[in-house]
Amino acid sequence: VQLVESGGGLVQPGGSLRLSCAASGFTFRSYAMSWYRQAPGKERELVAGITSAGGRTNYADSVKGRFTISRDNAKTTVYLQMNSLKPEDTAVYYCRAESSYYLADYWGQGTQVTVSS
Predict the structure, then answer these.
(1) Is pLDDT at 108 greater than 90 in this prediction?
(2) What is the DSSP string of the chain?
(3) Amino acid 41: pLDDT
(4) Closest Cα to residue 20, out of 5, 34, 31?
(5) What was the pLDDT predicted at 53?
(6) Which phi and psi angles does 89 have, rounded to 5°?
């Protein structure tokens, strides 16, 4: 099983980034996917989630209206489009795959996002 995040980097406030998480080794279409983040000295927090078929999404209040989660089951990839980035969005962003049916929970290694002028 692999979850490989990419797309992180340094961006100025107000800028945009698109994170990708490429999945392999499990039945991607059967898993709910989510993005979490962890800033230095803080607990890991849920940023956004999407159901297995992509019909429902949920977001942390702090990113509503700025971030969009989506998935492409054919490409076994989940995305996080981040717009209007703020310095407080600086964190390591992690991809997570969950299935209550398979009783499985997988995490990626994380990608750093830094918002700074």
Answers:
(1) yes
(2) -EEEEE--EEE-TT--EEEEEEEESS-GGGSEEEEEEE-TTS--EEEEEE-TTS--EEE-TTTTTTEEEEEETTTTEEEEEE-S--GGG-EEEEEEEEETTTTEEEE---EEEEE--
(3) 95
(4) 5
(5) 85
(6) -85, -5
